[in-house]
Amino acid sequence: MFGGGRAAHRTVHLRPGADLAGFRIALRGLVAGNIPPECVTWSAGDAPSLFGAGAFEESAPPVALPKAVAGLIPMVVPHRDPERYALLYGLVWRVLHGERHLPEIASDPLVHRLGGMRKAIGRDLHKMHAFLRFRRTESLEGERFVAWFEPDHHILEAAAPFFVDRFRSLAWSILTPEGSAHWDGTALRFGPPGDRAALPEGDGFEAGWRDYYESTFNPARTNLKAMRAEMPKKYWHNLPETAAIPGLVRAAAGRTAQMIEREPQMPAKRDPVRAVAAMADQDPKTLAALNAIIRRSEPLVPGATQAVLGEGPPGATIAFVGEQPGDQEDRQGRPFVGPAGQVLMRAMEEAGLSRADSYLTNAVKHFKFEERGKRRIHQKPTAGEVSHYRWWLDRELDFVAPRLVVALGATAVLALTGKAIPITRARGPFRFDRRDTPFQGFITVHPSYLLRLPDEAKAEAYAAFVADLRRVADLGRELSG
Q: How many alpha carbons lie under 13 Å from residue 5 in its C-beta half-sphere?
């Protein structure tokens, strides 16, 4: 693992690709030896190790790193940048030598560069998850599904567990120019590079998928720029549906004209007045028009006094998304004016954020409660209720167009991603990719969580919440710049 010339210098040889295990071993040895970054040369290739995996490596103790740094390492190691290992070790060295909060300083050149590399890996993983297609084949061992993919970075080992979870009962192989992954139903193994020529011809499932894609294609919403942005052309030759796209695009104008000329038919068993009103309201063109729709809509769960709309200037750099209105919000018709809202306002002020410059809204627009005597006790919305309001939230954010969206609590995260993600695992910067236009986000707790804590825990939790909002303020300034 280690070699070198001068006594104070070390050359670290790692295997090609993403050698996460090797980097962690080297990191422990370098930190134990107190070797500064400028005395380390990193080499990723087939060169043999000059220092064997001997007692020095085994005796090196684990390195205690902040969660932000520990989580960053596996998301940067797969990057193709040959300087990635040196940059990561430089970050670790600075954190361990007095700059404990360095990862929170987004303006630092090293943090900024590593953050960009992390985002690139996240995008590459997303593309592999979305655009990899398996084809069925038969072998002596039985049925197997094979796919070919060409990632931008060394992400095969990081991406493979996703497909294990998704297709655990199938035997499959993923072939790439750098390596291959194979799952037999019980064990995952990695092998040498694959050959695209070994990919089987299209199967019946692939033809069925193409037919389904053609049947769901909406010619009235054809947007070539958006299609290329979401599905880059480099992936087209691996996707069965792309063979149909040229013909669908050529026919889009004619099909749209036919849809316009076709005489509209009233849906059966519906009130004509309400049906016409619903059709007129399907596509609001402004935030005011959207809010008018929300005001007129009945609450999904009866009892709320009124819909509580978002508040703040369109074009605000930062938008905060909470769970749902509370008792005071329902009475006043404004978001974040109750006890939890007061906690948020105080924390925002301490973090240098202004309510007047921010946009505040909720995932669910009506107050859901249970009556106990004269009190109305908040009830958490169900996943179905969150889904019911999600379209409104998506359109609302489209009109506001913030640079940064802050999810306050698990319900807001569910509304923005469509997934139940634990706050403790995802707290911090987060990229929300569920919508057509991905946007930069940040996940933290809902201020009502702080109100429910025992008194001895409140001070520490509140300080962590303010620290989160300070990071939000820094990110907002960086994105505005």
A: 2
Amino acid at 233: K
CB 394 within 8 A of CB 434: no
DSSP 194-247: --GGGSPPP-HHHHHHHHHHHHH--GGG--HHHHHHHS-GGGGGG-GGGGGHHH
Pairing of strands 142-148, 172-175: parallel
CA-CA-CA-CA dihedral for 327, 458, 427, 95, to nearest 10: 160
CA angle 239, 182, 194 (to 5 degrees): 60
CA proximity to 87, closest of 71, 57, 109: 109
The residue count of the chain comes to 481
DSSP type of residue 104: G
- Helix (H) and strand (E) counts in the chain: 18, 15
Q: What is the DSSP letter of 14?
A: E
Distance CA 323, CA 341 (A): 12
Average pLDDT over residues 422-432: 90
Rounded-to-integer distance, Cα 221 and Cα 117, Å? 33
Q: How far is CA 362 from CA 335, 396, 405, in A?
A: 7, 10, 12
Measure the CA–CA gap between 133 and 147, rounded to whole angstroms.
6
Could you write out the DSSP letters of every residue in 267-318?
PTTS-HHHHHHHHHTSS-SSHHHHHHHHHHSPPSSTT-SS----BS-TT-SE
Contacts for 47 with CB less than 8 Å, ≥ 6 apart: 13
pTM: 0.48
CA distances (Å), origin 361, targets 302, 318, 446: 20, 11, 13
Main-chain phi, psi angles of 191, to 5 degrees: -135, -165
pLDDT grade, residue 306 (50/70/90)?
very high
Q: Which residue's entry shows tokens 């200037």?
A: 313
Q: Which range has the worst mean pLDDT, 132-136, 148-152, 363-367, 423-427?
A: 132-136
Question: With bands split at pLDDT 50, 70 and 90, how would you rate the model's confidence at 3?
Answer: very low
Q: How many whole angstroms separate alpha carbon 427 and alpha carbon 308?
A: 27
**pLDDT of 186 higher than 60:** yes
- For residue 243, pLDDT beyond 70: no
β-pairing verdict for 359-362 and 369-372: unpaired
User: Is the predicted pLDDT of residue 270 greater than 70, yes or no?
Assistant: no
Average of per-residue pLDDT values in the chain = 83
